[in-house]
């Protein structure tokens, strides 16, 4: 155990995860909305104005989209280098919140967090690798989990927090202005931590806790009251339904989505919480496990009243991440008193998850590589035709049907099609500096260009 939890093993794991994540980002070209945000952002100096227009006409997630606009104006390699750091930042905060025994280099726990995210997050490629998707989900989750960690550090770890009230208020605004259902889940968690402080710790609530909570509420209200959100919700048939009707039809569908895609995670989380309560409970770990599980479920079930619907996809990201935290918080360190029972059970779980991750990820890696090849083939052809003086290039339709959710490419995303006037065709044409671009069926394209 000393070798596994040594400084060298911990650093090796850390560096290994960074390298793997960097390579995955490298194999993920710009696609879909990446071109849209580049097209809609005039320059670095116009970012806030351009985002203000989007706030008015399309979407209220201004924090995510400001970051997206900024990085999309820079070379893709910069994002490739920074995105793994964001991922590791999230892993770090979960690690700090769950390392109850204060093991200095808890490599097992760190590794468990990584493989749990790799295994269980919905639409891995679209939420963690795709540039626009990463800003909307991965990067904003880092903001929210770091905000939560400040409360955790004071209330659970009993560490002194000296943070100005105004700073916490502004931080709260950012956390509340990130993502509709996940920011709502963050709000519930902050309330939960404050309840723990008053009812379990029996201490007075610090002023910065209140200011952070008020900031979170304000940021959430500003995001949800975006005029663009109201316009965007009108795109969906469900927007005309009453709230009870949405909830009634959505409830079963969310349950079905979770049962099909998150059943293993939920079962393992419940098992961990039960073992925790009866065998190695501390003052807080089982309470946190229950709290994060319930908030994660509430975050997912809030989608039942969403006008956009409730099918399994990126919107489940925050809820599933909260459930992963519940699982990790209650997972033992194999140093408990009842180790004779705990060790074989949870060693089996850890080993099974590791093997399961290997099988899933190797299949996913093939999907990522194939999507990288097909997408780059398209882009290379546009560039080569432009050099020949053809400013109206035609590319083949995608012939890609991924077996996993690991690649960022998805047929569900908005890509260029056969209509050169379609907005994504225009965005892509603008990016590559040609007048128009459109797709042809693969057979027709081969006959026209390959021969």
Features:
single chain; 451 residues; mainly alpha; 2 domains; two-stranded parallel ribbon; 2 strands; globular; transmembrane; DUF6056; DUF6056 family protein; membrane
Q: Overview of this structure, please?
A:
By secondary structure, this protein is mainly α. It folds into two domains: 7-364, no CATH class; 368-450, no CATH class. Helices cover 69% and strands 1% of the residues. A two-stranded parallel sheet has the order 1-2. Helix 9 packs parallel to helix 11. The longest helix has 49 residues, at 339-387. The model has no long low-confidence stretch (mean pLDDT 90). The chain crosses the membrane at residues 9-27, 77-95, 107-124, 136-152, 159-177, 183-198, 205-224, 264-280, 287-310, 316-334, 341-359. InterPro entries: DUF6056. This is DUF6056 family protein.
Question: Quick gist of this model?
Answer:
Keywords: Membrane, Transmembrane, Transmembrane helix. By secondary structure, the chain is an all-alpha fold.
Secondary structure layout:
Elements: H1 7-26, H2 33-40, H3 47-57, H4 62-72, H5 76-98, H6 107-120, H7 124-129, H8 131-155, H9 165-176, H10 180-200, H11 207-224, H12 227-233, H13 243-261, H14 263-279, H15 285-301, H16 317-329, H17 339-387, E1 394-396, H18 423-432, E2 438-440, H19 442-450
Parallel strand pairs: 1-2
User: Separation of termini?
Assistant: 62 Å
User: Can you give the helix content as a percent range?
Assistant: 55-70%
Mean pLDDT: 90
Structural class: mainly alpha
Please state the overall shape, judged from the principal axes of the Cα atoms.
globular
Strand content: under 5%
The main sheet comes to:
2 strands, parallel
N-to-C series of helices and strands: HHHHHHHHHHHHHHHHHEHEH
Using only C-alpha atoms, the radius of gyration works out to: 23 Å
Number of distinct beta strands? 2
Our count of domains comes out at 2
Q: What topology, given as strand order, has the largest sheet? A: 1-2
């Amino acid at each position: 155990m000393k070798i596994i939890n040594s400084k060298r093993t911990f650093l090796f794991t850390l560096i290994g995860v960074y390298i793997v994540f960097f390579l995955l980002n490298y194999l993920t070209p710009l696609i879909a909305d990446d071109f849209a945000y580049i097209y809609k952002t005039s320059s670095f100096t116009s970012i806030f104005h351009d985002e203000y227009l989007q706030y008015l006409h399309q979407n209220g997630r201004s924090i995510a989209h400001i970051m997206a606009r900024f990085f999309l104006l820079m070379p893709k390699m910069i994002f490739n280098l920074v995105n793994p750091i964001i991922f590791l930042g999230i892993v770090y905060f979960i690690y700090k919140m769950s390392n109850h025994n204060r093991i200095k280099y808890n490599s097992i726990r760190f590794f468990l967090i990584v493989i749990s995210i790799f295994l269980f997050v919905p639409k891995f490629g679209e939420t963690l690798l795709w540039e626009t998707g990463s800003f909307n989900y991965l990067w904003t989750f880092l903001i929210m989990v770091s905000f939560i960690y400040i409360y955790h550090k004071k209330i659970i770890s009993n560490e002194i927090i000296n943070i100005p009230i105004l700073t916490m208020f502004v931080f709260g605004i950012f956390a509340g202005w990130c993502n509709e259902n996940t920011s709502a889940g963050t709000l519930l968690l902050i309330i939960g931590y404050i309840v723990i402080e008053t009812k379990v710790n029996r201490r007075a609530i610090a002023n910065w806790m209140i200011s952070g909570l008020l900031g979170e509420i304000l940021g959430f209200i500003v995001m949800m009251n975006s005029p663009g959100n109201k316009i965007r919700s009108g795109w969906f048939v469900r927007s005309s339904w009453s709230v009870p009707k949405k909830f009634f039809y959505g409830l079963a569908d969310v349950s079905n989505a979770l049962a099909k895609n998150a059943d293993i995670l939920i079962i393992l989380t419940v098992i961990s919480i039960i073992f925790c309560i009866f065998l190695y409970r501390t003052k807080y770990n089982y309470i946190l496990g229950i709290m994060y599980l319930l908030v994660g479920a509430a975050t997912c079930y809030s989608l039942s009243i969403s006008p956009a619907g409730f099918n399994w996809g990126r919107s489940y990201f925050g809820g599933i991440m909260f459930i992963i935290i519940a699982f990790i918080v209650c997972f033992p360190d194999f140093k408990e008193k009842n180790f004779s029972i705990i060790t074989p059970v949870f060693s089996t779980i850890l080993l099974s998850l590791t093997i399961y991750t290997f099988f899933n990820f190797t299949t996913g890696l093939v999907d990522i590589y194939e999507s990288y090849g097909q997408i780059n083939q398209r882009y290379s052809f546009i560039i080569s035709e432009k050099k020949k003086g053809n400013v109206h290039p035609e590319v083949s339709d995608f012939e890609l049907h991924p077996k996993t959710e690991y690649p960022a490419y998805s047929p569900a995303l908005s890509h260029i099609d056969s209509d050169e006037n379609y907005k994504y065709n225009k965005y892509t044409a603008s990016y590559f500096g040609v007048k128009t671009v459109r797709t042809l069926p693969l057979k027709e394209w081969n006959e026209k260009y390959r021969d």
